[in-house]
Design a protein that fits this description.
1021 residues, mainly beta, 36% strand, globular, single chain
């Protein structure tokens, strides 16, 4: 038991391989960077958080691109970055419970059912949205490529898109808007944080820089001026010079990001720079497109953009008037002579509202022609029997969201424009062809909603058109050699071991129940439909299109599930096929999208859906139910307002709990006659809308947890998690008031109750991970390592197995799962590590082994897979860094720390060592030697606030526990406080009572006190 504890402690305490060199200062740099508020938007600047497009009859269009902005409102109901920065700092200071290890469940890329062929989904596999692309110009072909995935971080392929690897899972934000490479050294990568399409909630903290191809990252020192800002585009005109286009102005650095200076556009600063262009192989000119103001030109690598340089601002012939348009995208020919620009327009000259205007110049922008009328003809041709739907025509762009443009560097008449569909003109914009669709075979070629368009660099081109290009859209990444036929570059969704894309943007998930059926997972995703996943985590299939929403699974059969796609649907074969449900309202008006908001299945297999019906000028809110497996729904009971979520206890067929859009809770009791509805108001919620999620105890419908998003402005007792144990009569805030162990002031998206612990534990999903309390809110802990720092949107738990199985759907990194077996509690660690030599790993055993190391956030990262009788070398490593060896079943079989000297080392793994570890159920944990002059921290005051007498042990560098207190005495008495120290920063302390370990503690360079409570003691018992 102790060896297991030691290993887990060191996983949290000690750094991993090379990445530690960069990771060490991130937390402290990031704190400094988290102080600047978001500036006020200037006139005619975009108002983020709006819906970009309307829903069409097919149900395809996005209800929202990104997270609901109201989930991130402050106490005054406006978006703010200040509360986010405070909340995330507090989140990462909460101790981590390392007993839980998360594993990726997928979908690593979802296959698309053929019946979705004409809904913008085909062909798959699909992943999450890709919004920027950078191609390494090294070599002769497009092999090394970096992409930015919306809220999924930076990804890299080294084999031309066959496999992909996430690079930024453990950084302080996964919200990125742009990526750029240094032209002199493409191993230097810049990644700009803050994804603007995500409805104004950017999570932007500046620019990260990597000098080793994305293996390690550091937040640039000048990032503090970019804090809270959304980054749209970046350019590196020459080594060390970086231009950053943001929603609040242009920023420039000439020292690789050490400092940034804001650059004015003419006489204005702080304007939204929507596009940034420069021809490959050149350093000048640079074109900056600005929301509503024009296109500015710099001839000094971005140092100045003078007012006289504005191609649209000084009255050149044919240019649109300032403030007559919004978002602008620009494309320029290789010689800079021919230009094309599309602009989201307020009104056309006749006063008619338009979504898009298109302009061209053939003399470097001195005069312009309006060729918008050519684009209006583009949709007027048939796809088989159907005209292109209006929402997919050029004029109906979701401007500012999917709006990009590029000119073939080898043919100035060859233009690509990406909106919902990707359009191609080969005659300078006179005529257009939809290349998202094959008009001959009448099938989709790739997903819709295009954000990124990048041509192969000159070193990879043949010098003739068409030039190969890569595009990023809401379904991932595609490439083409001719701009007409397309190759899916999302990686395979089968037999993946490591590296395939897993960036889907989940909005809701559900799981089957029981050891067999809980292998089934279902989830609704932004713009890539609703998917079903089987046991291996790789074989996922989209069975509904459009924007996915909430899902529910039959409690007796994991292959039966229910979802939403405009109307209600169900599948009884794990997503291979679907059935459309019939729904009617009490007043005879048919229900329809966006009427349905949530869905659930009771223990008696009755299906419930919440939604609304419209009759004339009135809206009616209902619970609908189906007693025939989702074939037909009828209204069960009417409600006073809209419903955001529904929850039912596995122990009660009769009671239905509802979270309401106005912040109230409703309880519906079906009874034997007409259902009754009671409404409850919870005091001191962040604000009066909405209830984001409910969780009902699986053993009793009287115990319910309600959670809220937004920001309360209060750090302790943050008013985000509330509990009732008496059926709603009374509610208590269980967010916690114990500093360092409470729910921080961050948005909460989902809750779950684990009935397999005593007392029953509560789990909540936040912007940054999962929190759990085992004592009804007295103390909260971050749950487990290995989960990326991503929006955790929804939770699904199976308590019919013990220990329980928990799944989390994330907005950007797909679905993860963990077995909830509590064992170890860890406090924050030190960040002072000492570099030693290289380490060579030799696998002399007959088993393939996976090598991983643990970074300073407690995240385990696999860095090599060794076949039998093979070896690998990495380093320089870090003193006392933890290195883990796993077998094929992912069991830890060995763990090593690094020798405390600067010499290179060889670690030999033998069959005997592996066999012994498996036979004994223990892990080998050699600690080779310590270094002289260990850094120390101040005394640690140990407070025994429990009712038991405790002893404290220190783990020495041979892995042996040595008693520190009571030095032969009787231990620390209840209520007693004793000082220990000064101590080494890497000291590991074990606190025990008469029967064994009750808690563990890791000393940090802050020298915090350590408090042992009855809750901790009972937890270990």
């Amino acid at each position: 038991m102790l060896e297991n504890i030691l290993l887990r402690i060191r996983q949290e305490l000690l750094g991993r391989r090379k990445i530690s060199r960069i990771t060490i200062p991130l937390f402290f740099i990031w704190i400094v960077a988290c102080s600047a508020p978001i500036a006020q938007q200037t006139t005619n600047q975009p108002q983020f958080g709006k819906t970009f497009a309307e829903e069409d009859q097919s149900g395809h269009r996005d209800e929202e691109h990104g997270l609901d902005p109201k989930y991130h409102y402050g106490p005054d109901k406006t978006l703010t970055n200040i509360y986010y920065q405070k909340g995330v700092r507090s989140f990462f200071q909460i101790p981590m419970d390392l007993s839980v290890q998360w594993s990726q469940l997928g979908p690593q890329a979802a296959t698309v059912n053929t019946y979705l062929a004409d809904n913008g989904q085909m062909p798959g596999p699909n992943t999450g949205a890709v919004i920027d692309i950078a191609i390494d110009p090294s070599g002769t072909s497009d092999e090394i490529i970096y992409v930015i995935s919306n809220d999924g971080g930076v990804w890299k392929t080294i084999d031309g898109g066959a496999t992909w690897k996430p690079l930024t899972d453990n950084l302080k934000t996964l919200s990125f808007g742009a990526v750029a490479l240094d032209p002199g050294n493409p191993q230097t990568v810049y990644a700009g944080t803050g994804s603007i399409p995500n409805n104004g909630y950017f999570k932007g903290i500046g620019v990260y820089r990597s000098t080793d191809g994305g293996a390690t990252w550091t937040l640039t020192a000048g990032s503090s001026v970019l804090n809270g800002i959304g980054i749209n585009k970046m350019l590196v005109p020459s080594s060390g010079t970086l231009l950053v286009a943001t929603n609040q102005g242009m920023y420039r650095s000439t020292d690789s990001g050490a400092t940034f200076t804001q650059i004015s556009m003419g006489s204005n600063s702080g304007l939204y720079v929507t596009d940034l262009d420069m021809n490959p192989g050149t350093t000048t000119p640079i074109w900056a497109s600005v929301w509503g103001k024009g296109i500015y030109v710099s001839t000094d690598q971005g140092a100045t953009f003078s007012i006289n340089s504005n191609l649209w601002g000084n009255g050149p012939t044919g240019a649109p008037a300032q403030d007559s348009y919004e978002f602008v995208s620009l494309g320029v020919s290789a010689d800079g002579t021919t230009m094309y620009a599309n602009a989201a327009a307020y009104k056309d000259p006749s006063g008619n509202t338009k979504n898009l205007t298109l302009w061209t110049s053939t003399n470097r922008g001195h005069t312009w022609s309006n060729i918008t009328s050519n684009t209006e003809k583009a949709g007027n041709f048939a796809r088989g029997k159907n005209i292109i739907p209006s929402w997919r025509q050029i004029q109906e762009c979701q401007c500012g969201y999917d709006q990009t443009l590029g000119v073939d560097p080898n043919d100035s008449n060859r233009i690509y424009m990406g909106f919902q569909d990707l359009w191609l003109s080969t005659d300078g914009g006179n005529t257009w062809t939809d290349v998202t669709y094959d008009s001959i075979y009448q099938n989709e070629l790739m997903h819709v909603d295009h954000h990124a368009l990048v041509f192969s660099p000159p070193s990879h081109q043949e010098g003739t058109a068409p030039t190969p290009l890569w595009v990023g859209n809401d379904g991932g990444t595609w490439s083409s050699a001719d701009g007409i036929s397309w190759t899916n570059q999302n990686g395979s969704n089968k037999n993946g071991v490591n590296g395939f894309r897993a960036t889907n943007l989940f909005r809701g998930i559900a799981t089957g129940l029981g050891s067999q059926d809980n292998q089934w997972t279902y989830g609704g995703m932004q713009d890539t439909g609703t998917a079903a996943g089987g046991a291996d985590g790789n074989s996922w299939v989209e069975w509904l299109g459009g924007d996915g929403g909430q899902v529910a699974v039959d409690p007796t059969d994991g292959k039966i599930a229910y979802g939403m796609w405009g109307a209600l649907y169900n599948t009884n074969d794990g997503g291979k096929t679907y059935n459309l449900s019939n729904t009617t309202c009490a007043n005879g008006t048919p229900g329809g999208y966006p009427g349905f908001t949530d869905i659930a299945v009771g223990p008696d297999r009755i299906v419930y859906a919440t939604g609304s019906c419209v009759a004339g000028e009135s809206t009616y809110y209902y619970i609908f139910n189906s007693t025939d497996n989702g074939a037909n729904y009828s209204s069960l009971v009417s409600l006073t307002t809209g419903v955001t979520n529904i929850a039912i206890s596995a122990a009660d067929n009769n009671t239905i709990w509802l979270g309401m859009s106005n912040g109230q809770i409703a309880k519906v009791v079906k009874g034997n006659g007409s259902p009754t509805v009671n409404y409850y108001t919870i005091p001191n919620i962040p604000y009066a809308e909405p209830v984001v999620s409910l969780a009902v105890d699986p053993t009793t419908s009287s115990t319910v947890v309600a959670v809220f998003a937004g920001y309360s402005g209060v750090m302790n007792s943050s008013r985000h998690v509330f509990l009732t144990t008496d059926g709603g009569a009374n509610w208590s805030d269980i967010s916690g008031s114990n500093a360092g162990f409470s729910v921080p002031d961050v948005p909460i998206y989902a809750a779950a109750i684990d009935s397999n612990t005593t007392p029953h534990s509560v789990l909540v999903a936040t912007d940054h991970g999962i929190l759990r309390t085992l004592n009804n809110g007295t103390t909260w802990y971050r749950l487990g390592s290995s989960l990326p720092n991503v929006h955790a949107i929804d939770l699904a738990i199976d308590t019919t197995v013990n220990p329980s199985l928990l799944k989390v759907g994330t907005y950007g990194r797909s679905v993860w799962q963990a077995v909830l077996k509590p064992e170890v509690l860890i406090t924050p660690m030190s960040t002072n590590l000492m570099q030693v030599g290289n380490v060579t790993w030799q696998n002399n055993s007959s088993e393939p082994l996976a090598l991983s190391s643990v970074d300073l956030n407690g995240q385990e990262v696999t860095f090599a897979t060794l076949a039998p009788n093979s070896s690998t070398t990495y380093g320089p490593a870090y003193y006392m860094g933890v290195n883990i060896v796993r077998d094929q079943t992912k069991n830890i079989v060995l763990a090593y720390t690094i020798n405390g000297n600067s010499t290179d080392q060889i670690v030999q793994i033998t069959n005997e060592a592996v066999a012994a570890a498996k036979a004994n159920g223990l892990m080998s944990f050699p600690i080779l030697q310590s270094l002289p002059g260990e850094p120390t921290v101040p005394n640690l005051n140990v407070h025994n606030n429990s009712s038991e007498t405790l002893s404290i042990y220190w783990i020495d560098y041979s892995g042996n526990p040595k008693i520190l207190y009571p030095y032969g005495g009787i231990g620390i008495s209840p209520g007693q406080t004793i000082p220990i120290g000064p101590v080494w920063f890497g000291g590991i302390f074990v606190v025990s009572n008469e029967t064994g370990v009750v808690s563990v503690y890791v000393a940090t360079n802050a020298g915090q006190d350590f408090v042992v409570t009855d809750d901790l003691v009972n937890f270990w018992k």
